[in-house]
Amino acid sequence: MAPKANSTENRTRSSISIFIVICMCCFFYVLGAWQKSGFGKGDSIAVEITKRTDCSVLPNLNFETHHSGPKSTQVLSNPVKKFKPCHYRYTDYTPCQDQNRAMKFPRENMNYRERHCAPQNEKLYCLIPAPKGYVAPFPWPKSRDYVPYANVPYKSLTVEKAVQNWVQYEGNVFRFPGGGTQFPQGADKYIEQLASVIPIANGTVRTALDTGCGVASWGGYLLKRNVLAMSFAPRDSHEAQVQFALERGVPAVIGVLGTIKLPYPARAFDMAHCSRCLIPWGANNGMYMMEVDRVLRPGGYWILSGPPINWRTNYQAWQRTKEDLEAEQQKIEDVASLLCWDKVSEKGEIAIWRKRVNDMSCPNINEEDKLSKCLSTDPDAVWYEKMEACLTPLPQVNDPDEVSGGEIKTFPARLNSVPPRVSTNSIPGYTTESFQKDNNLWKKHVRAYKRVNKYLDSGRYRNIMDMNAGLGSFAAAIESPKLWVMNVVPTIADMGTLGAIYERGLIGIYHDWCEGFSTYPRTYDLMHANGVFTLYKNKCKMEDILLEMDRILRPEGAVIVRDHVDVLIKVKSIASGMRWNTRMVDHEDGPLVPEKVLFAVKQYWVAGENNKTATA
């Protein structure tokens, strides 16, 4: 016999039931269509509740331009906590890459440029303001070439990189000609050179990693070839390079090859790239090349352009000795040989290697005196894990020609194909059947989202983040050249599914939502949070996560939160004090399903608009 619910539980359930009825009544009232619904007495109950309830919507035009459907209602019994704006000096605040905090850490191996998050007593409990004059970014693809000056008001790169054609300041906009240190004639011509060696055109290469990306022009121009590049660069003296990348609508994060492993799974990328990225590849016994080997897919390509390649011709221009450059290249060649990478091309200042397809074909694998194997049994366990000079073994194969980990289809076929990690039962709890069910479920969810947020796939939202991505099925359901999705797999998730996401031809990153994300403020247009607040219950404060979402989100950006109704009521309460306009709607299967969806839009406001700032 089931235990009886106590009186508190009964009251909670009654409140939730009334809340659902109120939301339904508001929907009909606003539409002006009080028709018989087939629920008998439900109609008269709804009319009576409507008479006693304020079914008004917060008066914000921007919310209406984003959304349609049922109107929201205020059912909050407790006073809403209002968050004040932070001081304008925090306009570009990055909580885990703060410049002042960084200088307290060792410079060896770029440790000071890695993640160093603010302790709890230094966290900001205020809203990060947009700079004065902030405007919505240009739509893609115009955004690739133009960024409003007011959004990223830093001209230093236009001076430092003037001869390299990175960025130019023209009136009230920055123009990005597509140049780079190693491709002053433009990224397009540079990529054409790479495509003469690497199968970029046929969908074999879909995911790429750009180390030391600058303003991410390489990744920006790969997009028209249907290649998604995960670009990263540190927050350093080249102010705002990653911020420029994201403002252009190109995937990027703040990051560096330093002392800890990259936040990506093993065998993730089809191609990795360094264009004069100044990473000492041969140093530390080849540790950085071994980390690239870990994240590179079997048979994937590594591109190195710039010093020391073609040193015989360029040593004087680079102001380095022949001996120094020759020794540097020899170290790189030695490590590549040790890893059984095949050098497939060296032309001019561009060298390209191809990773082995399995370990059976590499004689060095079992010679410990030459190459030590990593001791970790999980090559995807990387969050704050120390980087080491060791080889990450590939999954075993039965044939020298077999691709370790399984063959992957070309894109776009691989998007909805069962990922090898799933089909081989490498992720406990996931099967071919459960993958297909998950894929279909998210197609259904996205159709329901579009009925409320009519701009979801219109191009209005370019940079999208899925905060708890699972198998990446939300991203797959909205996949379009108009947008891209940063698929985040929380470090506390039950299963590490990020490898399967990459096998689908999508990109993503590991992250702990109790900490700040490795990005600048105002860099995403839409954030999707499925079960995030339930997942982090008792892990960190709900307002910490919501304030971080507010920091990441652009003014007039949208949020979709999917969770249990009692969780969403708390989220709605906090969000109402953050200058978000919110609306809760039922699950697409009806009002009796306890899972609901909260839609929100961040209001437009900027620094200095008669805002009383917090004292932080």
Automatic annotation (TrEMBL):
It is an enzyme of class 2 (transferase). The keyword Transmembrane helix applies. The keyword Isomerase does not apply. Its main location: membrane. Gene3D superfamilies: Vaccinia Virus protein VP39. It is a single-pass type II membrane protein; Single-pass membrane protein. The chain crosses the membrane at residues 16-34. GO terms for biological process: methylation. It comes from the Eukaryota. GO terms for cellular component: endosome; Golgi membrane; trans-Golgi network. Its EC number is 2.1.1.-. Keywords: Glycoprotein, Golgi apparatus, Membrane, Methyltransferase, Signal-anchor, Transferase, Transmembrane, Transmembrane helix. GO terms for molecular function: methyltransferase activity. It is found in: Endomembrane system; Golgi apparatus membrane; Membrane. PANTHER family: METHYLTRANSFERASE PMT2-RELATED (PTHR10108:SF1119), SAM-DEPENDENT METHYLTRANSFERASE (PTHR10108). Belongs to the methyltransferase superfamily. This is Methyltransferase. The lineage of its organism: Eukaryota, Viridiplantae, Streptophyta, Embryophyta, Tracheophyta.
